Amino acid sequence: MAETRAKFATVDPVWSRICDEARAAVQDEPLLGALIHAGLLHHSTMERALAYRFSLKLASGEMSEQILREIADEAYGEDAGLGQSARADLVAVFDRDPACHRFLQPILFFKGYQALQSYRIANWLWRQGRRDMAYFVQMRTSEIFGVDIHPAARIGKGVMIDHAHSIVIGETAVVGDNVSMLHSVTLGGTGKEEEDRHPKIGDGVLIGAGAKVLGNIKVGANSRIAAGSVVLEEVPCCKTVAGVPARIVGEAGCDQPSVKMDHRLKDCED
């Protein structure tokens, strides 16, 4: 067993840390022992733990936990990028969310992280041509987590969705790497057009709570969208926009707004 743990520590330090935290958590709160063993310590890899969590949360009378588990295991087995993105997303939450003190928290308790991993499986199904199953996963993710992401949307890695209530991301939306967004964000369309109709969010963008970005417009890398803004026009790189409709109110204030997580309408401090 010690040899196996050492191997995991070398190959997958993220998963090794999660397991160490899980064992400590069981000691601190024995009443959560069954949950933590079933959700984390029972599994040999992070991918298997994520597949278990996915199936447990999304199962219903219409789709059994066993079937969903088989789908998730297949997805993680065939696309290594899903596990890589899950690790990058987890580290993003840990680094940017002051309420996250341990790696195990997003997997067990944070619906934004769990919803994003569910979307990633739905997106894998979509890319495999299994559109109806992808729609089912989208529906259940929305029902359980309050996060509605179309399975055809393209989302990069290292993404944090904080609090995550009432997130909507449309079919042709693109979200880059290392993006942070808060609750009630909408990346939506502006009408009934069926072609490319949703926003394209660049790398490193910070989107404040309640912001709406509408239409096939580009939001440049490392920009900030203030809380409550309605963005209808293109946003250049490294700018801050605010208002209804949103307008440029200054520079982004720092190199990586999505990491700094400073929502105030002033330059970020070093």
TrEMBL record:
Q: Which PROSITE patterns match?
A: HEXAPEP_TRANSFERASES (PS00101)
Q: Which Pfam families match?
A: Hexapep, SATase_N
Q: What is its EC number?
A: 2.3.1.30
Which reaction equation describes what this protein catalyses?
Answer: L-serine + acetyl-CoA = O-acetyl-L-serine + CoA
Q: Report the superkingdom from the record.
A: Bacteria
What GO molecular function annotation could you give as one example from this UniProt entry?
serine O-acetyltransferase activity
Q: Which SMART domains match?
A: SATase_N
Q: Which UniProt keywords apply?
A: Acyltransferase, Amino-acid biosynthesis, Repeat, Transferase
Give the Serine acetyltransferase N-terminal domain ranges: 14-118
Top EC group:
transferase
Question: Pathway involvement?
Answer: Amino-acid biosynthesis; L-cysteine biosynthesis; L-cysteine from L-serine: step 1/2
Record InterPro entries = Hexapep (IPR001451), Hexapep_transf_CS (IPR018357), LbH_SAT (IPR045304), Ser_AcTrfase_N (IPR010493), Ser_AcTrfase_N_sf (IPR042122), Ser_O-AcTrfase (IPR005881), Serine_acetyltransferase (IPR053376), Trimer_LpxA-like_sf (IPR011004)
Similarity field: Belongs to the transferase hexapeptide repeat family.
Q: What is this protein called?
A: Serine acetyltransferase
The beginning of the lineage is: Bacteria, Pseudomonadati, Pseudomonadota, Alphaproteobacteria, Rhodobacterales
